[in-house]
Amino acid sequence: MANCLVAQSGGPTSAINASLAGVVRGAKNSKSFDKCLGALHGVQGLMNEEIKDLTDIDTKKLSLTPSMYLGSCRYKLPEYADAPEEYEKIFDILKKNDVDTFFYIGGNDSMDTVSKLSAYASAKDESIQFIGVPKTIDNDLCVTDHTPGYGSAAKFIATTLLEVSHDTAIYPIKSVTIVEIMGRDAGWLAGAAALARNDYNVVPHLIYLPEVAFNEDEFIEDVKDMIEKHGNVVVAVSEGIKDKDGVYITSSSATEDKFGHSQLSGTGKTLELLVKEKIGVKARAVEINIPQRTAGHMASLTDIEESIAQGEFAVEKAEEGMSGVMITIHRLSDIPYTTYLSTTDIDDTAGLIKHVPKKWINKRGNDVTDEFIQYVKPLIQGEVDLKYKDGLPDYMDISDLL
Amino acid sequence: MANCLVAQSGGPTSAINASLAGVVRGAKNSKSFDKCLGALHGVQGLMNEEIKDLTDIDTKKLSLTPSMYLGSCRYKLPEYADAPEEYEKIFDILKKNDVDTFFYIGGNDSMDTVSKLSAYASAKDESIQFIGVPKTIDNDLCVTDHTPGYGSAAKFIATTLLEVSHDTAIYPIKSVTIVEIMGRDAGWLAGAAALARNDYNVVPHLIYLPEVAFNEDEFIEDVKDMIEKHGNVVVAVSEGIKDKDGVYITSSSATEDKFGHSQLSGTGKTLELLVKEKIGVKARAVEINIPQRTAGHMASLTDIEESIAQGEFAVEKAEEGMSGVMITIHRLSDIPYTTYLSTTDIDDTAGLIKHVPKKWINKRGNDVTDEFIQYVKPLIQGEVDLKYKDGLPDYMDISDLL
Description:
2 copies of one chain form a homodimer. By secondary structure, chain A is of the alpha/beta class. Chain A has 12 helices and 15 strands. Chain A has a 7-stranded mixed β-sheet with strand order 3-2-1-4-5-12-13, with helices on both faces. In chain A, strands 7-8-6-11 form a 4-stranded parallel β-sheet, with helices on both faces. Chain A has a two-stranded antiparallel ribbon with strand order 9-10. In chain A, strand 4, helix 5 (108-124) and strand 5 form a beta-alpha-beta unit. The longest helix of chain A is centred in the middle third of the chain and has 19 residues, at 150-168. The two termini of chain A are 34 Å apart. Chains A and B meet through helix 6, strand 9, helix 10, strand 14 and strand 15 of A and helix 6, strand 9, helix 10, strand 14 and strand 15 of B.
């Protein structure tokens, strides 16, 4: 028997530790591995041999802890021809630690690393297997129905929009609140704001995604129209909206700070200034910021359970001898929500971005359709059984990283 | 028998509906009132006779719904000499609706209204009673130990800082994250960030409150020092920090937008630019913004229960014939946390701001002391039993306001 090793990379989500917990649990329950090791700080930490034994970790608590328990790196492994010594070093360390399977949980760069290392293993006839377990709050990976981490981010965003609705509704005045949501290229997160709507709540009144060219005049018209109808207007907007020439709308807001440097406002702030200037009503921008990817206290139970399952499934696929694959999820139906897990060749998703389909955006380009809502709704269902200590979430100790 | 009437005013908190639920429940259980009426939009809505019957409302659900179920107003009632007709109108409407007791839940302006109306009642020998039930996330009211709404805001802020710690810890690089927290005049909310610290977490590394004159050079020194020690540094800062001349530090960040208008950056953004310029490391600002006052999903059970109790207590005091008073809470001990309710003359708190005591701030002025933490800790204890529907909090229908 040999060991397996797991690492995490890319940006945080509330579910990436659930995938880690799934790998650890799967490895422990399998008869194929002695120990489940973890490398700190992704493949960079692996090269520094920052390795710890995860076999006896509390996987329940781990699965409910946001961000990366093992830390992360933003590192694109060079092509073999450019840095053969890095590949050799990685394989030396894996062999030294008796590792025959490497699970890499992360986004596009991590999948690229899995691709390169598995190709190298084939070329050198090395028996070490490499399996990618995806995650990204952005939900913009192809082939898979959705990505671990997205459901929890969507649940936090929709909850925040619902609470913002309660907040903005109290004064009978005209005002515009612009809520800026993450998403440079795809509108999956901003679109999830639509889930805040319910029997009584119609907020957000408008939603703008990067998939549609942003038109300033139409935006002002739409906002004026909604002010007429509702008084208090709430707009959800992707940080990544661009004009018809593909230029980020924030680029129009450049100002010079007191140090003489050019500063860009955020997207929300840019629209706030536009509304104040063109309509003359009270306006403010709210950026949901870091909490949308790290608010573990509002994680989606569905997301956490699916992430654990993908980790466990990755171990099964390793036992079947697979390498150079990424775990995928496929949907059979929305109601009842039914899915199954599978794998895809790691190169099938590389570098491609899954956008919100045009047919899931309304004609005016200022809202999502019911199809979008039916797609996201199952992903935010269920609340996690998080324990609290002294009034705060009782997360895993991350003092290794602090 | 007559009716009582309740209204809400000022800015949102996660507990102001719990006080409302307490008044409704108290009125229903008392033998003194036929109906419990509610005025929409505070005393302004009362003057427009926007009144609804609250007697049979679901008080459990109401108590867990953030922001104001009845809507709000920002209205300072003029002195009687300047607008006698407003006083007469209010009393006419109260009498027409057979109201003999008016409960006003709100902040300083609401307490001022209670003061003026009860004085008018005395002067005119009217028998209508006026009782103030305080709330403010700012916790800056005098006489009372703390204010309803503060504990829930503190719990959300501390949770967010803990989650930000998990988020920022993942990369082994030098970076500074500035978290901007509400509080123009007092540092109670920013200080609550210290509660994020636990067995493993030392974030936030630095805390700046409006009670201490902000010194740019010392700040840069402190941040440099923490970068040396920790790499990733997280700073919590009140939006209201000022320099030694009492000038808001944001005033140094004025830039001109593309419309030619002067724009102030937020406090966090101002410090972000300062860190980038003077230290040259990666820096970013995160503004917690609206969610800190309206994230009902992270309300403190202690805060909600105390707010309900203050509402019920207000009804008891009305039955005893009191008028022109505000409900107060007094602490007997931190451990075990023991308090009792009382009343104070409504004019005792008017216009005064309760600051964080100097002895609860460390000597360097960049952190709070253990005494501060012991004071806040009991207020964030316990989680609410919030129901969810379709994956989101199941709050009260506020379609009257939307």
